Amino acid sequence: MRGQLAGAVRAGGPAGRVSALGGRLGFRQRLAVRGTRGPVSARSLVQIRSFPLTAVGTVSQFSRRSRLLSLPIIYLIGINHPEKGARKTSAPLEPTTTHGRHAAAYVAAQSEAARPAVRSNLRRAATIAAGHPASWRRFPWHRADAQSLEAVRNGLAERYKPATANASLASVRGVLRRAWQHGDLDRADLERRLDALRTVKGGSAPGRALDMGQVARLFGAVADGTPAGIRDAALLALLYGVGLRRAEAAAADLADLDTTDASTWALRVRGKGRRERLVYIGNGAKDALAAWLELRGDDGGPLFQPVDKAGRVRAGRGLTGRAIARRVELRSEQARIGRFSPHVLRRTFATRALDQGVDVATVAD
Question: What is the pTM of this model?
């Protein structure tokens, strides 16, 4: 096994940053792990020495059929002895289990709806920084110097569109600010690292907005008289009619709805940053919502609830943001206007509002 590993190191060459060796390790086989001897685990740091190179790797994948490490992948992530005269570069940072509180604290501070996206942003950046799939929770961002973070920024800019790259950069900046708040970075170090993670510039095509013909076809697709169609019509009416985000629609509760005014109803919405606002529902949107409430009943709980295949409303449960997205995607396909996400309806609402002279700040809320 040692000879195989040494051969893999030599095959990578001094310039090679990431190599991979797929080999079979028995569960009882023991290797030197940080000066001790014990079974190799999925998170053990394994040091393999060969002359004249030294590489450090992590066993990061294992067989899905069992918890035993029957088919690990050993990543060779750096060479500690470069050739004479070669330029010295720092080895990629490895995830740790002791410095995850900064990322965990940053993710916990986000809204429940935003956390999956933030975790994905951090995982994307950590993978580029480590050179292989890495955990967002354990990656030691506060130990990365400005040069390493500059390389991460460049890697994101090369692989992803500006919007995706900037989302990951914003999340990493948030983690670094948490590290500063916890006392693990001083102000000067924080500023240098934030400067290395500056925003990626680049033009992007304008987002899609529906025209009035497409809107008519979309609402025609839900006018089937079924309980699910009645609910989806009310849901689309709020997404398009008042510009709700899907997370806001998922969080809406019957108690948030004020129907005292017969002509215009009001809905209290909890938006980004835990800010609350009132949106007013009138005309066709109010009629669609009234039809859904008649079917739903006046029991408390989430405003939009699941409907089973038999057409029965599942009281007490609410649609998740992902379920709302699936309903919009399904109805857009049925309308044959191209599949799209709920945000297209919010963008369509904003476009119509701006065309009518509504203030930009009002629309942005």
Answer: 0.54
Q: Tell me the per-residue pLDDT of 104-127, one tens digit each, with 9 for 90 and over.
A: 889 988 877 788 889 999 999 999
> What are the tens digits of pLDDT across the range 203-244?
655 678 899 999 999 999 999 999 999 999 999 999 999 999
pLDDT of residue 60: 36
SS3 string of the chain?
Answer: CHHHHHHHHHHHCCCCCCEEEECCCCCCCEEEECCEEEECCCCCEEEEECCCCEEEEEECCCCCCCCCCCCCEEEECCECCCCCCCCCCCCCCCCCCCCCHHHHHHHHCCCCCCHHHHHHHHHHHHHHHHCCCCCCCCCCHHHCCHHHHHHHHHHHHHHCCHHHHHHHHHHHHHHHHHHHHCCCCCHHHHHHHHHHCCCCCCCCCCCCCCCHHHHHHHHHHHCCCCHHHHHHHHHHHHHHHCCCCHHHHHHCEHHHEECCCCCCEEEEEECHHHCEEEEEECHHHHHHHHHHHHHHCCCCCECCCCECCCCCECCCCCCCHHHHHHHHHHHHHHCCCCCCCHHHHHHHHHHHHHHCCCCHHHHHC
Do 68 and 27 touch, CB atoms closer than 8 A?
Answer: yes
